[in-house]
Amino acid sequence: MRTQRIAAEATTEATPEEVWHLLSDRSTWPSWSPLGSHAGVSPGADGDPDGVGGIAEFVTGRHRVREEIVEREPLHRLSYALLSGLPLRDYRAVVELTPSGAGTRIRWSSTFVPERPGTGWIYRLALTRVLRGTVTGLAAAAPARRR
User: Fold this and answer.
1) How many CA atoms lie less than 13 Å away from 95 in the CB half-sphere?
2) For 141-146, what is the mean pLDDT?
3) How far apart are alpha carbons 114 and 120 in whole angstroms?
4) CA distance to 33, 42, 57, 62, per residue, from 107 (Å)
5) pLDDT class of 144 with cuts at 50, 70, 90
6) Which of 46, 84, 96, 142 satisfies CB 3.0 to 4.6 Å to 14 for a cystine?
7) Which fold has domain 4-144?
8) Cα–Cα distance, 28 to 131 (Å, whole number)
9) Residues 6 or more apart from 20 whose CB is under 8 A from it?
10) Is the pTM of this model over 0.90?
11) Cα(55)–Cα(34) distance, rounded to whole angstroms?
12) DSSP code string of 42-101
């Protein structure tokens, strides 16, 4: 089966520091994204719940997914892998922050392989919608923190 690739981008007037503040704290994600509730499962190696190795669970509708932080480069990049909850293999998401004028360009991308043949298109469609909502939500929430 082929690896599926999806991405969504947005630009915000918020600085990379302001965006990173929300992005790097997964407990905030449900407040600005289409995701439902958040629960920390286990902290990363450094004791930070959102550090490398940190596992969190998100419940959205009937979906309960667990994700692990696999890369964390403050102010620039956060990557996580899906551990369970969707019939996908090798799911990895990368969020990249790039200064853009006085603001920040946010690019959220992911790759995955569907477990069942013929389902790649539907997961690409559904997850693209989630990524778009997540990126636009983060882009809107970051400057709102200033007010």
Assistant:
1) 28
2) 82
3) 6
4) 15, 27, 22, 27
5) confident
6) 142
7) Alpha-D-Glucose-1,6-Bisphosphate; Chain A, domain 4 (3.30.530)
8) 16
9) 74, 75, 97
10) yes
11) 19
12) E--TTS-TTSTT-EEEEEETTEEEEEEEEEEETTTEEEEEEEESSSEEEEEEEEEEEEET
Residue 147 confidence (pLDDT): 53
Look up residue 118 and give its DSSP letter. T
Place of tokens 């389902």: 119
Domain boundaries, the chain: 4-144
Q: In what order do the strands lie in the sheet with 103-114?
A: 4-12, 103-114, 88-100, 77-84, 63-73, 55-60, 37-42
- For residues 117-132, give the mean pLDDT: 94
Residue with tokens 């603001």: 103
